[in-house]
What we know:
Elements: H1 2-15, H2 22-35, E1 39-45, E2 48-55, E3 59-63, E4 68-72, E5 75-79, E6 84-86, H3 91-102, E7 112-122, E8 125-136, E9 139-149, E10 155-162, E11 165-172
Antiparallel strand pairs: 1-2, 1-11, 2-3, 3-4, 4-5, 5-6, 7-8, 8-9, 9-10, 10-11
Amino acid sequence: xxxxxxxxxxxxxxxxxxxxxxxxxxxSARSQLVGATSYRVTxxxxxxxxxxxxxxxxxxxxxxxxxxxxxxxxxxxxxxxSGWSPGAVNRSIYGLILEIQKxxxxxxxxxxxxxxxxxxxxxxxxMNRYEVKxxxxxxxxxxxxxxxxxxxxxxxxVVRADGSTTLTATYxxxxxxxxxxxxxxxxxAAGSGY
Length: 194
């Protein structure tokens, strides 16, 4: 009986994952994300939900509660419910594009302290969980919890809290064919003179 318990204990110890390099694991997940042929990310915060289908390097479909935007190369089309019209890149859209392209929520800076927080089952999938604290002059100014799929290595979710705001980003549908195309019949924007 003693030998059976020892054998069982050694199996359990060997089966436990070792998350010895949190920063390396997070960077690896970021690299996989930016290397994917496509993916979906859903952002949730106090202002609502935004879902983005992204097919690098230059195709995005952005769905918000008030509009759908399609970006293909330099072409931007927006539909707020009354048909498609040409759009323009503003500072907000440009920042969003850069954040998506770089996987910014997974970038660790010199002021970030990453630690492994074990594994957990999320939606039926085993995830490695990491905690990241952003520290300035010894004070934690922001926190991120990052879940990475233990099998695929892709990021699953990032929850960022800084001050009074919380942002949740959930990643899915890696390498899916989203069929992102410029809408067939964009109409001129109202008041454009066309």
